[in-house]
Description:
This protein has one domain (6-279). 68% of the residues lie in helices and 6% in strands. It contains six helices and five strands. The protein has a five-stranded mixed β-sheet with strand order 1-4-5-2-3. It is elongated and about 75 Å long. The relative contact order is 0.11.
Amino acid sequence: MTALPVPYSLFQWVKYAVYIALSMNVWFFFAEEFDSARFAIETGAEVAMGIQLFSATLDTIAWVILLLLFELETAVIPDQRLRGSLRFGIHGVRWLCTLAIVMAFLGYVAEWRALLPSAAFSGDVCRLVPEGWSVMIKLDDFIPLTADNCVALSTDPRLVVGLDQVIASPTGLMEGQRLALVDVINAGAWILIVIILEVEVRLLTRWEGGTRPLVRVANGIKAVLYLTLVVAAIYWGFKGDFLDFWDAALWLFAFIFIELNVFEWQQEIREQSLDGEAIS
């Protein structure tokens, strides 16, 4: 067996290290969202009765599985073996992951919409302390309203109408709304990228050269979507949401490998097609 070139071996090690790091993020997101969910349940918030509390965890699990399936199809399993029950099984798991990703996306949308309606609170905020109210610091970050922190909310407090017994400062509410919107945009952009990749892998790769204009259009759309994801990651970095920033950076890095895998796979299919034409 011929030894792999050092750069290629390093490429493989880096790629799988990124995949492992992304898998570890499942636990980090679960731990973060579990704290938020536990607090919501303890305070009786209605938001606890929705999938949006664990949107990031569900999203990450589905995306990691989908990433590994892309890796298997484009870089590990030979084309001649992607037949029958193996292909059916991979496609079945892919559809389940797609369903989970769509559900997570709807969870992000529901969370964002829950934060949009608000109303000014008139009166003494501190009188709400015995009633078990909560203070939203930012997205998925709640603390109990106490006699100590209610004073800080005395200037133009906002009632978060979409949540049960939650109050926030104008700044905290705006930050929560913006972060929730970025989650929606980020999740939607990733869904569109995968749809385009699926079109490339399933259709454009196997068609003749007449699809080159379509390939250029697809690449242009992906470039805009990837730029959107970079902007979202930078926004999370500046807002101090390190886990979201770290996760976004890893996913961008991971899809560089997927794009390279797809490019190499396209080249192999074209070469096989040319060889077949030459033999015939």
